[in-house]
């Protein structure tokens, strides 16, 4: 065990994502030896510190005070403090506060030390059974349905090789997100839902997006923390057709086949397998995006 004193600097310390045993010896030593621990939520971190008998003073640094708090922390670091940063769970900076402070420390010439450990993104990926050679972490999708669909469409259009896309998702949105994925990638696309990782009710649902959707719909309630992974393939000629701009196809139908807008809309709805009203909504969404 290394018992040399901690060097001055900023320590980004990963903490467990459920199971309190998932913390490294080095993380515990850093938390014990630091001058202060900057926590996303001090009550949450206290559970870990109490479990390991660590009495280091804590301060709160969360998304609402990160900028102001960072200035104070940087001042302390400049005079040689050793500050550990933790989020509520997992690795700071990964869909959690930490990035701003890290940038500020680097700009001020302060050493930044990563203390690696748990992160839901990698835990979910390695056990998913999906491609681990090429993956992309997306974080949380926008909560509003139009923006979420647009993001998924942009992701699909931007792929040049098979890629596992990894998303964090909330239980109350998971069913809608799966529906959107089905629309973008088709019902046969493979997904994995990793729920409650490292906890008592850890669960992996693996299958086509339609199967996983059905399984969730058959449950009384959907709870817990979850990571959604999708085996995203580059668009084939068929799916590329679906991703072609609706506006462009509409104009094409009007020009090349001489259809009136009303008839072109009817034809396009048939082509895309959606109702006229759904197509109209999609078209409005697309138009507002390109404005
Ligand atoms: N910084 C964290 C990390 O490194 O994983 C992520 C923080 S983010 C605010 C919280 C989201 O991570 C949750 O909504 C969920 O999507 C995912 N997550 C965190 N812990 C999880 C767990 N035990 N099982 C599944 N997903 C988890």
Overview of the molecule:
- With 291 residues, this protein is α/β, with parallel strands linked by helices.
- The protein folds into three domains: 9-118, Cobalt-precorrin-4 Transmethylase, domain 1 (3-Layer(aba) Sandwich), CATH 3.40.1010.10; 121-240, 2-Layer Sandwich (Methyltransferase, Cobalt-precorrin-4 Transmethylase, Domain 2); 244-289.
- The chain contains twelve helices and ten strands.
- It has helices spanning 25-33, 42-51, 66-78, 99-107, 120-128, 145-158, 174-185, 209-217, 237-243, 246-257, 261-272, 276-290; strands at 9-13, 36-39, 58-60, 82-86, 112-115, 135-140, 163-169, 190-195, 203-208, 226-232.
- Helix 7 packs antiparallel against helix 8 (209-217) and helix 11 (261-272) crosses helix 12.
- The radius of gyration is 24 Å and the shape is elongated.
- S-adenosylmethionine (SAM) is lined by residues 17-18, 87, 89-91, 94-96, 119-121, 168-169, 194-199, 225-227.
Report the total helices: 12
Unreliable residue runs: none
| Biggest sheet strand line-up | 3-2-4-1-5
What CATH architecture label of the largest domain applies?
Answer: 2-Layer Sandwich
Overall mean pLDDT score? 91
Could you spell the SSE succession in H and E letters?
EHEHEHEHEHEHEHEEHEHHHH
How many domains make up the coordinates? 3
Specify the structural class: alpha/beta
CA-based gyration radius: 24 Å
CATH class placement of the largest domain: Alpha Beta
- Describe the sheet with the most strands: 5 strands, parallel
